[in-house]
Amino acid sequence: MLKSLSISNYALIDQLHMQPSPALSMITGETGAGKSIMLGAVGLLLGNRADTKVLLHQDKKCIIEGIFEIGCYGLEAFFEEQELDFDPICIIRREISPSGKSRSFVNDTPVLLDNLKILGAKLMDVHSQHDTLQLGDGNYQLGLIDAFARTSGELVQYQHDYHAFRTAKRVFEELKLKASELQKEADFNQFQLDELSSLSLVAGEQDELESSQEVLENAEEIKLKINEMLSLFQDEQFGVINGLGQIQQSMQALERLAHKFGNLRTRFQEVFVELKDIVDTLGDEESKVEVDFEKLDEIRDRLSKIYQLQKKHGVQSVEELMELERQLADKVFQFQNLDESLEKAENEMKLAETAMTKSGKLLSEKRKACFGTFEKELQGLLAGLGMENARIKIEHQFSNPGNRGMDLIELLFSANKGSVPQALKKVASGGEFSRLLFAIKYLMADKMALPTLIFDEIDTGISGEVALQMVRMMKEISGRHQVICITHLPQVAAKGDFHYFVFKDNTSEKTISKIKLLSEEERVQELAKMIAGSNPSASAVESAKELLLN
User: Fold this and answer.
1) Does 159 reside within a domain?
2) How many structural domains is the chain composed of?
3) Which of 322, 328, 398, 504 could form a disulfide with 193 if both were Cys (CB 3.0 to 4.6 A apart)?
4) Which of 130, 110, 139 is nearest to 36 (CA)?
5) Backbone dihedral region of 251: left (phi > 0), alpha (psi from -120 to 50 degrees) or beta?
6) DSSP string, 398-424
7) Domain assignment of residue 507, given as a range
């Protein structure tokens, strides 16, 4: 329940603080004094959007804070889901800065506006004479029936099955679309795969082929050059190796004559050994090089095919062609196993649809089973509110499956004897709607488990005994829920545990709205003014006292 409400710098409100009764609080005040402004502020606290137009002083931020006692409302799971610290005393704060930036906090932790709205809907229900559009909405009416019939378990199961069906259907349709695409590409993919597979590509082979091609294309000249070099190295009389051997002997003799030349001899020896190894390698390479025009043609042909495929597919290497081959093989495999995959996906979709239809029918049956009781109880409440001839009828038809089920319902209403019940938007005056709305809220109060209910001039268009019956019902609700009622009727205002008075203060530069909790004496005077005007007579004062006593 709402323990306290603080509003600063909002519309006509400079500073306002109230601590409503845990049972029934009444709020009265002159027209335009700020009662509806207070509701606007509460709406911001519950997640409604705002802009800088709400600021009384444009250079200061607006702060609205509500302290709620939530220990017994089972909200721990919600707080855990939202990663918020749970505390039995919950502080919700909304700030709107002069720049227009809005921030929301729950227990001093910033939250998104959408999440604040979800929490607010679990804490307060603001109900006014302007709720006719909401009451005429089919989804809202369906929510009333679900709450009345207590279908939460069936609805959760249906929604689980519905989302499972939607997922299975999406998978099947995506697979069908993919199958259509694969069908169009199947022959082409198979042709490309065969073209690549026929080459039996090997990673790294392109470099090897290009190197072999280079040698074979120049084989004769390579052999000629190697033999020329070998001749220069190995000639018995004038060969380099023979001459270097003689130098080696001289180096050894030089070392014997003076040890300081040993280092030069060692260096020469290393060069001589390396040079002899080069000569041996040239001899080996010469023996390997052969003029083979047939092999050269084979290499040229294979490289030509590789180059053609690289150009065709816009790649630069054999490895990229091999990856493309793998992808094509996967597509061909998928196509070849398409019928089996489609059949499996379709079967899973049908099973999910069967489960959804079954749980949807169970949900629908439980809803329909309460129609008669809902109609009867609501008609009884309306009769007690002076509408003895009122008739309520719930019209039902099946619909395509949706998130809320497979039902479309419409609440039909007739206030007069002999009139056929019709859709709410076509019938009912303001006073009739006020009573209908209140009767529905009374009927649903326990079933929807809302901690705090706010009625904004729900008594518009009614008076006398009907008003007294309405406030008696409010008192009954307030035994189980916190109720705050904005009213213009003295007989209603007199029954509150607390009575707050909203008024305009014109003593400063700007007119501002204020609120005060009335004492017993002040209540008498305020009720007398509501009865007889700004200068109430003695009889009006007595009438006010009588209202408070009864």
Assistant:
1) no
2) 1
3) 328
4) 130
5) alpha
6) EEEEETTEEEEEEEEEE-STTPPPEEG
7) 2-129+432-518
Domain of 95: which CATH number? Answer: 3.40.50.300
58-91 b/e (C-beta count within 10 Å ≥ 16 → b): eeebbebbbbbbbeebebeebbeebebebeeebe
**Distances, alpha carbon 501 to alpha carbons 54, 303, 309, 490, in Å:** 22, 96, 88, 12
Q: Which residues of 371-400 are buried (b: 16+ CB within 10 A; e: fewer)?
A: beebbebbbebbebbbbeebbbebeeeeee
Domain membership of residue 510 (yes or no) is: yes
Q: Domain for residue 355, yes or no?
A: no
Alpha-carbon span 402 to 161, nearest angstrom: 11
Residue 398, token pair as written in the block = 């099946």
Token pair belonging to 139: 């989804």
What's the rounded Cα separation, in Å, for the pair 135 and 468?
24
Instruction: Give a yes or no: residue 534 inside a domain.
Output: no
pLDDT one digit per residue (tens) for the chain, 550 residues = 999 999 999 988 889 999 999 999 999 988 777 787 888 889 899 888 887 778 888 889 999 999 999 988 889 988 999 889 999 999 999 999 988 889 999 999 999 999 999 999 889 988 755 555 677 788 889 989 999 999 999 999 999 999 999 999 999 999 888 877 777 777 787 788 888 888 888 888 888 888 888 878 888 888 888 888 888 887 776 788 888 888 888 888 888 888 888 888 899 889 889 888 998 888 888 888 887 788 888 888 888 888 888 888 898 888 999 999 898 888 877 777 777 888 899 999 999 999 999 999 999 999 999 999 999 999 999 999 889 999 999 999 999 999 999 999 999 999 888 888 988 777 656 677 778 888 988 898 877 767 899 998 888 778 888 889 999 999 999 988 999 999 999 999 999 999 999 998 888 788 888 899 999 999 999 999 999 988 899 999 999 999 998 7
pTM (two decimals): 0.67
**SS3 annotation, 327-354:** HHHHHHHHHHCHHHHHHHHHHHHHHHHH
**Tokens 């199958």 label which residue?**
179
**Alpha carbons 290 and 226: distance in angstroms, whole number:** 13
**Helix/strand/coil for 30:** coil
The sign of the dihedral angle between the CA atoms of 309, 313, 318, 324 is negative
CA 296 to chain centre: 65
Tokens of 155: 């609805």
CB atoms < 10 A from the CB of 491, how many? 21
Residues 6+ apart with CB under 8 A from 497: 21, 23, 24, 25, 478
Residues 6+ apart with CB under 8 A from 278: none
Q: Measured between alpha carbons, how far is 110 from 116 in angstroms, rounded to an integer?
A: 10
